[in-house]
Amino acid sequence: MEFSAPAKLVVLLFFFVCFASPSIQAKPVKYCDKKGDYAVEVNGIEISPDPVAVGKPATFSISASTGEEISGGKVLIDVSYFGVHVHTETHDLCEETSCPVSSGDFVLSHTQTLPGFTPPGIYTLKMEMENENKRQLSCIVFNFNIHFGSSFADA
Length: 155
Description:
InterPro entries: Ig_E-set, ML_dom, ML_PG-PI_TP, NPC2-like. The protein is mainly beta. The protein is 13% helix and 52% strand. The chain has helices at residues 5-20, 93-96; strands at residues 23-27, 30-31, 40-50, 52-53, 57-66, 73-81, 84-92, 104-113, 121-131, 136-147. It is globular.
């Protein structure tokens, strides 16, 4: 089957838009305990840009909801690379979202620039959220990609 020059251009542009440009895409979420009864339910995760570029800011936005008011707490993050633990950090919940968190929907958002020596590949991030009394409110796991340098869209 032979394609005309305009058809080839359309196909090429389609692949460029879908695969080469940075985008915001929802990531699938897994709970740490499938049978866990978490007070905070995660509805989705968006990473921008996706894949994350080394040396450039990346924003992780986590859409969630709760049935209870949360006055404070911590967000604990563990990152693994090919199953090997590579990074841990802890953030004040109220620095990632507005506190107190009212019953209903809210968003946790964190922007970070990865150091230039970060190797490209698929990483696994585990995020635990706990209240000010150290009671676990949620625990999720998701994957994200890191690549070197800039994309075509940066040019």
